[in-house]
Amino acid sequence: MITAPLIRNAKPFAPLESSDDTVISTLRFGPQTGTVLPMMRLVLLMSLLGACGAIPIAFADAPSEVQVGETLPEATMQGLNGPPRKLSEFHGKPLVINVWASWCGPCRSEMASLERLAWMEAAASFVVIGISTDDYPENAKGALKASNATITHFIDSNLQLENMLGAWQLPLTVLVDADGRVLKKIYGARAWDAPQALQLITDTFATNAHP
Fold it and tell me: Is the whole-model pTM more than 0.85?
């Protein structure tokens, strides 16, 4: 599996092809544009900034990451192409949450496959939604318009969902059961309508389904 971590706000580039054998991803934070920042350096940087009191208040007050096996707390999500919704409103059906940003090339490269996934017959048993981490709603809305998005998308506020879901790398896809429990986190772009990806989703939900 190949990963290609890049930094937010890097120079625009053409959408990247991805498959189940190639995962392309983008780091969410970085000290400067165009630098590659491995995760260990990222954690160290954040720790040092926190010790110095240099991390923004919005980041410091954000909820901690919900780990696999834990239940997502309640949160209100602001709609990009629909009304605001609470996470609890999606209880009752397994949920596929795709976390993305308009500046993230790998995120945009997988959007079409997520749309196709949502319209597949096999997807009738679960719900697919998107959450943008863009700072400006107009940028996220522009990306949705360009991709002719039909699935429901929301936008994060004050890093709440970004930190809760653990979106330190984009794109991130989180599989959540019908009760709001996190089952799996998948970093990197994939062809979500491919047989292997669909099998991964259905197997994860079936294995963790209530008797």
Answer: no
